[in-house]
Request: fold
Amino acid sequence: MNFSYYPGCTLKNKAQDLDRYARLSAEKLGIHLEELSEWQCCGGAFSMGKDEIASKLAAVRALAAARDAGQDLVTLCSACHNVLKQANDAMAHDEEFSQHANNYMQLDKPYKGETRVVHYLELLRDVVGFDALKKAVVNPLKGQKIAAYYGCLLLRPSKVMQMDNPENPKILEDFIRAIGAEPVLYANRNECCGGYAVLEDRAIAQKKSSAVVANAADQGAQRLITACPLCEYNLRKNAEKALPVSYFTELLAEALGVKE
Amino acid sequence: MSKFDKEQILRTSGVNVLKCMRCGKCSATCPSYDEMEYHPHQFVYMVEKGEIDKLMQSPSIYKCLSCYACVERCPRGVEPAKIVEAVRLQVIRQAGKNHLTPDDIPALLDEDLPQQAIVTAMRKYSK
Reply:
């Protein structure tokens, strides 16, 4: 099965493991990810201003390229996913913005939000299926107690993201069960790690990330998983208590026996 | 009369501040609450009252983490983060008012910092 794939800037650099293990695992599961031939950085954050046009165009170009390829667009980084999905929603539902964006781009065929944006986790849940994934696992991560860290951008704003219940999500916990490990529930799994503010205010990232990791450890977690490079960085570098932090795709590749 | 315009904030944000019922849930759930001079619920009613200049001069506009907690949890669908963003845009859209410039970046880097942090901060803090 073929999908267009938008890796994003960080997956080409500091988060290469997130990308590499996702590709290896997808091939093993019979899914072919075709990287868009020309993609630009999404900008990391969706500009919430309704009159912000240019800052959203990179996302819209990627969405239109997937439409032209006739494929759903798979994302992996939580931030890229959030930006592409919100830009897509704006193209479909904000007529004034959509008209401005199309006037700028002058595509052969105007873009109206036709592309379906699918996060890799949704691919596992809705296309592969967690039951089928479980059957494909050759190296179950038995006995491991793993805390899923959702952070902000995978789930919110839920009326646009529509991935899972924003306050009581389960997609990552179901994933953890499918690879043979035991999920650990904890209150801070969908609270912010401090995000990009770390760049000029490390103290806020330390405070927020410490609360997340301490809460996960209190509930018995041995390690954390995430889909977001910035969450990974903050939890690993800025939390007081140290727990191993991995991308979910690394554990997936390990369970499928394709980790190199 | 302020040269900065409440109407522009409302247009940019798309927010209807009159929907707010002052329950304070946005501020209660805000991860940056302790860091802010003005809190999310204050952004909403200060915009309603036209106190735009005070907000534009406050460092609070750079404290929003864009985590969407207030957007998600507001029982009235007010979406306070969009107000904070609109005020910040009104500041950084002025010439010479960028909060972060490319020249600032090298001193802020460490070897593990993901690109995502840099591009997001640049998007939020400068035009």
In short: Chain A is about 45% helix and 10% strand. The first helix of chain A runs from residue 16 to 28. Chain A touches chain B through 47 residues (CB under 8 Å). Residues 2 and 16 of chain A are 22 Å apart (CA to CA).
